[in-house]
Amino acid sequence: MNHFPTTTERTVTTSFPAGFLWGGATAANQVEGAYAEGGKGLSIQDVLPRGIQTPPTEAPTPDNLKLEAVDFYHRYAEDIALFAEMGFKVFRLSIAWSRIFPNGDDDAPNEEGLAFYDRVLDELERHGIEPLVTISHYETPLHLARAYGGWTNRDLIGFYERYCRTLFERYGHRVRYWLTFNEINSVLHEPFLSGGIPTPKDQLSEQDLYQAIHHELVASARATRLARELAPGAQVGCMILAMPTYPLTPDPADVVAAMQAEHANYAFGDIHCRGEYPGYLLRYFREHGIELDVTDQDREDLRHTVDFVSFSYYMSLCETADPEKKVAGLGNIMGGVPNPTLEASEWGWQIDPQGLRVVLNDYWERWQKPLFIVENGLGAVDQLVEVDGTPTVVDDYRIAYLDDHLVQVGEALADGVDLLGYTTWGCIDLVSASTAQMSKRYGFIYVDRNDDGTGSLERYRKKSFHWYRQVIATNGAMFGRRADDVAPALQH
């Protein structure tokens, strides 16, 4: 019987398309610092000194690394110059909502905050780097969380719409690619981080959680409509945390369990791309007594669907119907059960490059909208060493990880997937969102900063910096080559 060749049976010959957007990604709260400068208000990040591992504190604390982060606020020109040296075509950044509207419900925007992002965009334009802007990246203004209950309150739709209108009017002629919410489906797992909802997870009802999700979805659709009015040349995408879920065994019950787990994430893309709630989610609502407040205007708003789908990819999951095989915490940060065929990173995230090809094919076939990989990377402990008198990091493990994933991106392109670009997560070392550590490093650029807050904040090129520069310069022709093929790591 004829069969399609597997990855191991052939070598990909499809090249990356002309104009492919290579680059890197960051978030304001993890790189900017200057949490109290330039008229900025507090965000939920400023009371998470230990990341999502511990409940929020009442006030910012001195041991919160995010308060200073890696000082991109003052060093953005230096950092963008390094991105340009790698050949970035695109840089994904987020705008801190509380830098524009310090409390979130302010009547007028903060001009100092707007001017800061003007300067950042100026610098990107000077180097010919396309900005990809995330409007809300886990940075809900703290006042909106505490005074309104975060996205459980319908008032946040209007506050977010005002914020979006301000951004589109100010930057709409300069930014072609916008993302409405970062990893919007992550609110299912981290309601405070993702939705600014201060109610502890174990006390938050599904009714309130899904009402908050509905408000975010309506706000996202309104942002899409606004962009088309105020920035007609722009494209708006949703952003999803991709977690392909495999059945743990061939047992049909496990297959159904995996399907239902996938539905929880598909729903966000289905609504963004199709403009209405899918039947499987409506069934879930019926069977769990969830009755959402959905207005006729909401239904009309949701019809404003996105231009493209972006996503992060770090791991895959397994699921089973057998309760005895569900061991919480041993698989990945977002649940599931361990996959016995995969290895894991130092932080327990299972590594599955082929899962990226699965996601790309799955999303393309499901939604038939262009895709954009806006996060992918390896968090690892890096050791700064001297090679020929120059500080660097010999991160062959990171090169191997990214190379393995890019091979699978090439496979997906050969499969016919329409892909706009690829931005690695944490192109410069930054503070981890999940653990608030600096020691969990992702970047091509090492930042001299430690978990205890010490360090000079100086920047150093890692070996992967030069590898990625070659990947971009060859438009992906170099993927499939290992660290030993990288040109001398210390050339500048």
UniProtKB/TrEMBL annotation:
InterPro entries: GH (IPR017853), GH_1_N_CS (IPR033132), Glyco_hydro_1 (IPR001360), Glyco_hydro_1_AS (IPR018120). The active site is at 375 (nucleophile). Gene3D superfamilies: Glycosidases. Keywords: Glycosidase, Hydrolase. One of its GO terms (biological process) is carbohydrate catabolic process. It comes from Georgenia muralis. Transmembrane segments: none annotated. Belongs to the glycosyl hydrolase 1 family. It holds the Pfam family Glyco_hydro_1. GO terms for molecular function: beta-glucosidase activity. This is 6-phospho-beta-glucosidase. GO terms for cellular component: cytosol.
